[in-house]
């Protein structure tokens, strides 16, 4: 397993944006599925909500793995 390197501020911004986007997609898919009357479309939306939840959890896990490398003080 390769040695983890600290995440840069720019990478952290990208990850935060990605997590925000995944969260929005989860909410949109879930809300759309709840209001959907077509069972096949509802199934696709439910599946997509699960896929985006997995993406969100993967990003969160990656952040948690890198947390021990984060500096304790803001970098100047």
Automatic annotation (TrEMBL):
<protein>
    <recommendedName>
        <fullName>Spore coat protein</fullName>
    </recommendedName>
</protein>
<dbReference type="InterPro" id="IPR009078">
    <property type="entry name" value="Ferritin-like_SF"/>
</dbReference>
<dbReference type="InterPro" id="IPR012347">
    <property type="entry name" value="Ferritin-like"/>
</dbReference>
């Amino acid at each position: 397993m390769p040695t983890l390197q600290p995440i840069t501020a720019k990478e952290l911004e990208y990850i935060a944006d990605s997590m925000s986007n995944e969260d929005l997609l989860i909410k949109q898919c879930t809300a759309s599925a709840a209001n959907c009357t077509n069972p096949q479309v509802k199934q696709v939306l439910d599946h997509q909500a699960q896929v985006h939840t997995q993406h969100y959890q993967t990003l969160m896990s990656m952040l948690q793995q890198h947390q021990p490398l984060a500096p304790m003080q803001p970098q100047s």
